[in-house]
Amino acid sequence: MEQRALEHGYGVEERLQSGECALEVSGLTVTYGEKPALVGVAAQIPSGSMTAIIGPNGAGKSTLLKAALGVVPKSSGTVRVFGEALSRQMHRLAYVPQRASVDWDFPTRVIDVVLMGMYRELGLLRPVRRWHREKALACLQRVDMADFASRQIGQLSGGQQQRVFLARALAQSADLYLLDEPFAGVDAATERAIIDVLKSLQAERRTVVCVHHDLTTVPDYFDRVLFINVRKVAEGSIATTFTAENLQKTYGGRLATTHIDQLRTAV
Ligand code: ADP
Ligand code: MG
Questions:
Q1: Which of 30, 120, 130, 138 has a CA-to-CA distance to 172 between 20 and 30 Å?
Q2: Which residues, including other chains, have CB under 8 Å from residue 140's CB and lie 6 or more apart?
Q3: Region 113-129: what's the mean pLDDT?
Q4: Nearest Cα residue to 231 out of 10, 32, 36
Q5: How far apart are CA 208 and CA 128, in angstroms?
């Protein structure tokens, strides 16, 4: 934490105090039909931080990302991105959806998936130029997938597809990356590759928010946590907020106390 604060010139907590928020939601309520998925959620994600969104299945974690992106309608509340309305800052956001939610049965080459991330630079119906391809390839290189550029996305393993989604997000050159369970169902090598890329994004002063399900890696991967279970339970630095009490409040009886103690020793 201290080392990172030095690299950034000043710490994440100080940036939050200085009011520099990559994402700020307040009073956020989202209802599908009758049932509320999120109720009155307020959260502040400081610019340059790496935040884990934690909570049980059905807690509204994916919904929170989708509401931040404006892809599900809010019943009430506000979303601000870098201090402005979402519509003005949309170009600074990149999103990696939960892999299980994407159907890649239609034939698309890996390089084209990455180029799709660059549509703003490309413009609709304009020709793809060599430098576009070179940038897309460089992004694939960063996730160690350049050799697969001409393969059909549907033929890749789950972990390889996840790397390609990350390459597409990298191609967007965003400032705020929202990822929904990027490590779900990937092998250890892919997990390492993904976390290395995310940490390098943070070293470039970009902001990373991940829905994350593996509690054991939270202290190692992230510097902040946001606990939600329909309502916000807690948010803050790992040191102050990744506590047995907050885990218990978020998961209730579902998490054994011994398990929580083991996690705490990792902090
Ligand atoms: P999480 O990502 O934390 O597992 P979600 O945000 O996906 O939770 O879902 C929160 C709740 O909203 C769940 O009860 C889920 O069944 C419901 N839900 C999510 N998406 C929809 C949808 N498109 N239509 C109806 N209900 C939904
Ligand atoms: Mg989800």
A1: 30
A2: 110, 111, 114, 146, 148, 149, 164, 167
A3: 76
A4: 36
A5: 29
- What are 172's two structure tokens? 């967007």
- Whole-angstrom CA distances from 69 to 85, 103, 153 are 11, 20, 25
Q: Token pair for residue 59?
A: 């807690």
109: its two tokens: 């080459």
Positions of E strands within 125-241:
176-180, 207-211, 224-229, 231-237
Neighbours of 248 (CB within 10 A): 15
pTM for this entry:
0.88
> pLDDT tens across 204-237, in order?
999 999 999 999 999 999 999 999 999 999 999 9
Residue nearest to atom 26 of ligand 1 (CA): 32
| Structure confidence by residue, pLDDT tens digits, 104-116 | 677 889 999 999 8
Distance between CA atoms of residues 57 and 228, nearest Å: 10
Contact by Cβ (8 Å): 37, 30 = yes
Distance of CA 89 to the CA centre of its chain: 17
Q: Which ligand is closest in space to the CA of residue 58?
A: 1
Which residue's CA is the closest to the ligand 1 atom numbered 14?
A: 58
For ligand 1, the distance from its centroid to the CA atom of residue 54, given in whole angstroms, is 15
